[in-house]
Amino acid sequence: MNRLLLILSLLVLPAFSADPAKAVEEAERGWAKGVTTNDFALLGKVLGDDLSYTHSNGAFDTKASYIDNLKTGKSRYFKVDHEDLKVRMLSQDTAITTCRASVLTLVNGKETPARLTFLHVFVKRNGQWQMVAHQSAKLP
Question: 85: domain range?
């Protein structure tokens, strides 16, 4: 019986002691993977229904309009490479990420590289970290 408890604790405890900052980082990288591969199921999970997405040009999207623009091809991401990604936990269920990124997108029908800085806000809902706010700015 003691042996069984030991085995179970070795299997279960890592799930409870997981680093929340790592989980937020995984959600951040999940967003990047989702937009570059048009994985709409992944984006549906990692983006909150109340998403407020402000692009570096000032354009604004909700979750629905953001995903719709990807589905219709109005928006297209070819690359999102994070640099100096930092996660700051504000509480057990709220975090922000900041980073610089090299991004390759489709703008007015042309592939356009950009150097951006991102500020993302994540909240944990039903065990899932979701992005609820995005703000980006162009770097010089």
Answer: 19-138
Q: Do 121 and 94 meet the contact criterion of CB atoms below 8 Å apart? A: yes
Split at pLDDT 50, 70, 90, the class of 51 is: very high
Q: Residue 108: which pLDDT band, with cuts at 50, 70 and 90? A: confident
- Whole-number Å distance between alpha carbons of 38 and 46: 13
Q: Are strands 110-125 and 77-91 parallel, antiparallel or unpaired?
A: unpaired
Any domain includes 3? no
Give DSSP secondary structure letters for 40-63: HHHHHHHEEEEEEEE-TTS-EE-H
* Whole-number Å distance between alpha carbons of 140 and 136: 13
Read out DSSP for 108-125? Answer: TTEEEEEEEEEEEEEEEE
CATH number at residue 91: 3.10.450.50
* Residue 42 within any structural domain of the chain: yes
Percentage of the chain exceeding pLDDT 70:
88
Judged against a pLDDT cut of 50, whether residue 100 lies above it is answered with yes
